[in-house]
Give the backbone structure.
Amino acid sequence: MIRFRSGGKELAVVIDAVERTEQIPLLTGVPLAPSFVRGVASLRGGVVCVVDLRPLLEPGSEAASSGEEKSLLVIHDGVRRIGVLCDDLPDFQRVGRGETLNLPQDELEVYSGALRVQRGKPVVGAPPPELVGILDPPRLFDLVERRLHEG
């Protein structure tokens, strides 16, 4: 898995869906685009739409202010690709059996499951493991396309 923070949320995506990580390139704004579209960028001869996940996943919320992001994670589903702004540098994490969970059906809009993350050493009285949403790239792209057609 690749773990990253975007829009203040900690998320994960399977490594096979990650094309690359990049420094944030020069973004060209798109007139009349929804707030989650931060622009388009030229990456090694191709153009990619760059999104801010906060207003995409939480409609009505403010976009992260420009300059807070540290990197760009390019995600693909075999056909489509998108650049996701990250609050930090993405990090690789091996995931063992029992570390992922299925989510209730109503939580599956863009997630394929959740990842258990234990902060610090597990000790008696320590807080329970946190859950990190695992993005499902095809569902994420479908949501982006739906929101683009709505607005």
Q: What stands out?
A: The radius of gyration is 16 Å.
